[in-house]
Write a structure and sequence with these properties.
This protein has 222 residues and is of the alpha/beta class. It is built from 10 helices and 8 strands. The longest helix has 19 residues. This is Enoyl-CoA hydratase domain-containing protein 2, mitochondrial.
C-alpha cells in the first residue's frame, strides 16, 4: 500500500459482523513464555507504527467491538467512524496488562491526558456515542440491518478525500503527524518543508488553472 501510487485512502474494516477487532487471543497468549510475549507485543507495536506511517489517509470503520489491540489498531488510523452500538476500550488492566501496541501514547494524543488515564486505569468500555463525545471518533452513526453502517460512512468520508490533490493530502498528513510532536516553531518549519515539496507539482498548477477557468480540477498525483 505504501508504494502503490494508485491508493488514495485506506479503509480498515472487519469481515466479522459485530466485531471490528477484539484484540489479542488471551488463550494463545497464556501459552507463551515471557520472552515470547515480549516479542509478540513488539511485533504488534511495529505493525501499528507501520499503519500509522502509511502516507495516505487511513480510516477505521468500527462496526462492533474494538477492544485492547483492536482499539489500538483504530487509534493507529488517521480517522475513525463508529456505529453508535460499537463497544471500544483499552481493557488491558482488567486482565493484568497494560496497552502495549501504542494505546498509552495515541489515546492521550487523541482525547487528552485526563480522559486517556481514566479509560486506561479503569479498563472501561464505551459505546460509539460516548466515543464521539470525547473526540475518540470523528463520526458516529446508527447501526443498520447489515451491520456495516460505520463502513458505509467511512466510504462516504473516503469519497470526500478522493478528489483532492493526492500529494497535497500526503504532505498535509506528514506535516500534522510530525508537527504535533514538536514545539510550534519547529512545527511551522516542518509545514514549510512539506509545502515546499508541493510547490513544483503539476497538481498545484492544475489547481490554479482550474480556479482560473472556473472548472473542477483534475488531479493526477504528479
Amino acid at each position: 500500500l505504501r508504494f502503490d501510487e494508485k491508493v488514495r485512502v485506506v479503509v480498515f474494516k472487519s469481515e466479522v459482523k459485530g466485531v471490528f477487532c477484539a484484540g489479542a487471543d488471551l488463550k494463545e497468549r497464556e501459552k507463551m513464555d515471557d520472552a515470547e510475549v515480549g516479542l509478540f507485543v513488539k511485533r504488534l507495536r511495529n505493525l501499528m507504527d507501520e499503519i500509522a506511517a502509511l502516507p495516505v489517509p487511513t480510516i477505521a470503520a468500527i462496526d462492533g467491538y474494538a477492544l485492547g489491540g483492536g482499539l489500538e489498531l483504530a487509534l493507529a488510523c488517521d480517522l475513525r467512524v463508529a456505529a453508535s452500538s460499537a463497544k471500544m476500550g483499552l481493557i488491558e488492566t482488567t486482565r493484568g496488562l497494560l496497552p502495549g501496541a501504542g494505546g498509552t501514547q495515541r489515546l492521550p494524543r487523541c482525547v487528552g491526558v485526563g480522559l486517556a488515564k481514566e479509560l486506561i486505569f479503569t479498563g472501561r468500555q464505551i459505546d460509539g456515542q460516548e466515543a464521539f463525545s470525547m473526540g475518540l471518533v470523528n463520526h458516529t452513526v446508527q447501526q443498520n440491518d447489515e451491520g456495516d453502517a460505520a463502513y458505509q460512512r467511512a466510504l462516504t468520508l473516503a469519497k470526500e478525500i478522493l478528489p483532492q490533490a493526492p500529494i497535497a493530502v500526503k504532505m498535509g498528513k506528514l506535516a500534522i503527524n510530525r508537527g504535533i510532536e514538536v514545539d510550534i516553531a519547529s512545527g511551522m518549519a516542518i509545514e514549510g518543508m512539506c509545502y515546499a515539496q508541493n510547490i513544483p507539482t503539476r497538481d498545484r498548477q492544475e489547481g490554479m488553472a482550474a480556479f482560473r477557468e472556473k472548472r473542477p480540477p483534475r488531479f493526477i498525483g504528479k
